[in-house]
Amino acid sequence: MNTEGWAVSVPRGYRVGDWRVGRPIATGSWASVYLGVRDGERATRSALKFLPTGTVTRRQLRYLREMTQREIRLHSRLRHSRLIRLRETLVVDDAENPELDGACVLVMDLAERSLADLIRAGVPVPDAPRLITEICEGIAYMHAEKWVHGDLKPNNVLMMADGSIRLADFGLTTEMDGTHGYLPPVGSTDHVPPERWGESVSERGHAVRVSADVWALGVTACQLLTGHLPFSAPTARARYVAAVEYAAGERPLTLPVSLPEGWRSWVGDCLTPDARDRPTAARQLYRARVLAGTVEASPRRTGTRMATAMAAALLVFAGASGAGMVTPSVADPFGRWLRSDSDIPPEYRALIVEAGTMCGEPGLSPALVAGILKAESDFDAKLFDVAKNEYGIARWTPSVLRYYLPTGRRDVVPTPPLSPEDSIPAVGRYLCVRLPLLAGVPGDPGLLGAAAFRSSDDVIRRENGVPERFRSFVERVRKHRAEYQP
Question: Of 118, 96, 146, 296, which Cα lies nearest the Cα of 223?
Fold first, then answer.
């Protein structure tokens, strides 16, 4: 393959570190990827990603440096089976070859192809539901760790030799600072959400939120399921204008007719015009698993229906309290979720049911939430543990709780005391985000979630189960969950 015009042209057989450059694989605007071979008793193959150095302008060089730093920083902090692995980082030392001298080389796991190689116009990609689910696993993990991919598209999703996928190309990845991160004014027009260029620009770039990845997830899923982009037009610019007009309410969303009915709603939700109303990647992961047939759907009340049901139950409960003599079903409107004769304080039962039914994630239940609260604080809403910086009924650390408060309240770290009205629903939001990330770890999903609540999902995945130091806590949660289950 002729590499003339590539971002970095490297001759076959060129040596960098212990690696010998083989066939060219792919190139983009800023980097080129080649096969790398390390000879020995067992020959090792890798992907060598070359980023150029002195052949670009000073402004371009600054972008390249920042993109390289972003990619290396992410690989140093995140580990997940759905993220491509960085083996080592090298710098070319070749003064006689100024076009390569000083170039950064990322040595990465070798993939078979990108998902873009599988997409054909009007033809669904085989096994698309599984591929979408695995993309969701990677994105949900990144979001849970407070990172935004920033450039999700089929070209940046790689298929390995065993058919599994890995997210790659993290040059536009950003770590969130509060509710958003910052990216330079670049990106794939077909996969960037309409609000991206409307964000204010600062020295750090455009503000970007996790909802941008969810939009790109919907576009990518539509391509895999139908072979078409969701906005039909002959050029990328025209398709972007169509997306902007849709987001402004000037035209309807017309998805390809070949999109399966269940996935039509899934993709449409990802493409919700208002970024604040888009579902989380963790929620889309659960729905993708249901649509792919890998988990069973759980009954779930959401939005207004859930709020209405809760309000009605509270009114019935209040009326029953004043009446004195009532039937058990009326006296305890939460009896279908929590035992009526338990030690759960009555004033917290509605909040616990709300938290435990917040999503259909396997393992989440009101009894589990109650068990966690019992083990954490014995339902003490006034708990004040300054030494551990933990407060309230769920022992939240304020700087962590902020990320699990309702949208619009996450910019400010809450100040103790932490109310049950904030603390208890936040347990449900936490578990809805974290439980999908524990899929594949052996054990009871709910108890794994409890262990993650006390430590982190990263710890549980690394240990492939509940670590010894948290087993006493988890055993208490298990015992109380059984006591509270009707």
Answer: 118
